[in-house]
Amino acid sequence: MKLNRIIKLAVLIPLVAACDDMFEPGIENNQDFETLTKIPTNAAGLAMHGYADLPYQGGSAGAFNDVATDDAVTNDFGNAYLKVGNGYWSSKQGGINPFDHWTSYRTNLQYVNRFLEEMDGFNWAGKALVNEMFKDQIKGEVYALRALQMFSFLRYHAGYVNGELMGIPCLTRSETAGDDFNVSRTSFKECIDQIFSDLQVAQEYLPYDYVNIKDSDIPDKYKEMGVDNAEDYNRVFGESKMGRMSGRIAAAVEAQVALFAASPAYSDQSGVDWEDAAEKAAALLNTIGGVSGIDPNGNHWYNNIEEIRDVRGGRVPAEIIWRDNVSETNGLEGDCYPASLFGKARINPTQNLVDAFPMANGYPISDAASGYDPQNPYAGRDPRFDMYIVHDGSDFGPYRTTKAQVNTDLINTTVDSKDNVDGLDADKGGAPTRTGYFMRKLLNEDCIIKMKDGGSGISAQHKYNARIRYTEIFLDYAEAANEAYGPKGTAPGANYSAYDVIKAIRERAGITDTKYLDQCAGDKDKMRELIRNERRIELCFEGHRFWDLRRWKADLNEQVMAMEIKTVNGKKTYTPTPVKNETRNYDDCMYYGPVPEAEINKWSALKQNDGWDKF
What pLDDT, in 10s, does the model give residues 145-158? Predict the structure, then answer.
């Protein structure tokens, strides 16, 4: 991609001033570079390109990502993720590739690199000492954001080229008109090393958390510089910056990157092993007391209504490491409520995901000790099943008036009920479920249906998307620690094992029987299977499954299943059946994404990932 000399720079967001609730993009404005050096808020806009294209897909984006996996399908037949899952993923121009971010990441890296090169010339504040602190804070922020951009870039486009694991062009300086843009890709390991280096530098500059302090608590570094009042320090590193990249968030990103690089799809040439991944996750988890710090309400963070309403100014509840803005919205509810609640029912969990939920005694439904009854399949299940999935007989959703288009307050997904708009593949109007299930997780059931003059609507409520949750980092640790030290071994500096983490997560969910967990504790392979299953359940619809299956090199082509429920002689029968017109069709090369063919055609030094020349 040829990048012309930057003469005009897009100013995205004025961020030096205090934030109300995180930050919002500002109106685009063009300034010459000399002007930028004199206007701090505009110069900060250059740096904030690092916040573009974050790898955390919340709301509909994260949920729709799952429809390319074995966890969900959609009734939106134009959805690009659905087409990817059904065999239409392509590197070609005009083809289906919702994972093509090559150009945007190259652009974002150009901006942050230019900023790092020029930032010492920017005037951030009138007071010299405050100016120096601003330089540290923003420099740390941008180093971390560059690392995050590179991590995102790698996830989309890294892959093997003639047996060598390649990354992306690892650019650490800005490009000018006189540069040779025909540059090759850097090895995966070099990219990972650069990401870790940037994150370490970031943590040297950034506070672990943005908090207001007293004069006596000013860090030694700034005392020695001559900073003698907390008001100046708090102006730069205080609560007004909450929600911006911090040392804690950078440490969480470091744990994510380590798990990614230690995984089977990358580990042979990444230079990162399971020990590294376990230690980086533990370093963060130790700051909240290890497993004792697990938020008891963390598995339904999205529906903790009062907690969400009280979150302001970048603050986070106990479960959340990093989030986006709180806003009043009903978008996800409109997309995912059943048709009887005036939703589009876009995300349909599969029977595959339903089967992943164990019984309340902790045993998988495939185990004879579970007590599972296939003709009473929703009884006695893991409490998270009803928390995350809407099924036949669910008491779901907001208050419905007598004008609602249903005959009962319970969801009915049977195929043979008269005028049932929620039935499997319903053809009676509305938006059908293709699996017999609807998504419940992430939905705010306070989004009340309003009836006026026979019409309908869904009220907006306060919500936010979680970018990084502690539960994810706990599961990262469990996975890495099991591989490195076995089910009950611990990482250096940690007093908890993979077993301890999974026990705590299951107990939080209401599974107090440890018999099955204890069986797994004696077998690393069984514990691996359990950890992966817990990750599938806890993180469902949050955009993780697509990446997890690939980094594990797990089966991508499992047939997605539905549940057909009929009433025979007054009794319901339950028959798992393949989802109509839905067959996963991934090639082995698709464990890694492609380089866009348009880039390959432009630059001879760029090489395509193995196997993608035919797609």
Answer: 999 999 999 999 99
